[in-house]
Design goal:
Elements: E1 4-7, E2 12-17, E3 20-25, H1 36-50, E4 57-62
Parallel strand pairs: 3-4
Antiparallel strand pairs: 1-2, 2-3
Length: 87
């Protein structure tokens, strides 16, 4: 394995150097709000980590002026929103 590996996602920038993965939320125009694509990318990334025991640390940050504004409410109507945290 090389000393650096970069994953290819649309809204999540990931760089792995040795045993450290750096994951950057990359939707600065939306204050890094979570849309379906970013949630899917995060889910995939953390799933991949299960098969990569050599990665021992994940450093998360975000592009722009906000870490994460929460859910992207523009993505779907509020009437379809889950009613509980479990949903």
């Amino acid at each position: 394995m090389s000393s650096e590996h970069v994953f290819g996602y649309q809204h999540l920038l990931v760089r792995v150097a040795g045993s450290v993965a750096h994951a950057t939320l990359n939707r600065p125009d939306a204050l890094n709000a979570l849309n379906a694509a970013l949630v899917a990318e995060l889910h995939h990334f953390f799933g991949v980590l299960q098969a990569r025991p050599e990665i021992r640390v994940v450093v998360m940050d975000a592009a722009g002026r906000a870490f994460c504004a929460g859910a992207d409410l523009k993505e779907r109507p509020l009437t379809d929103a889950p009613r509980s945290v479990a949903d």
